[in-house]
Amino acid sequence: MSDMLERLQRERIVAIFRGVEDRYADDAARALIDGGIRMMEITLNTDGALGMISRWREKFGAEAGIGAGTVLDLDMAKEAVAAGAQYLISPNLDESVVVYGNEQGVPVWPGCMTPTEVVRAWKAGAEAVKIFPMASLGVKYLAEIRAPLDRIPMIATGGVDLDNIAHYFKAGACAVGMGSKLVNLTWAREGKFDLLTARAKQFAEAARGL
Question: Alpha-carbon distance 110 to 49, whole Å?
Answer without folding.
Answer: 19
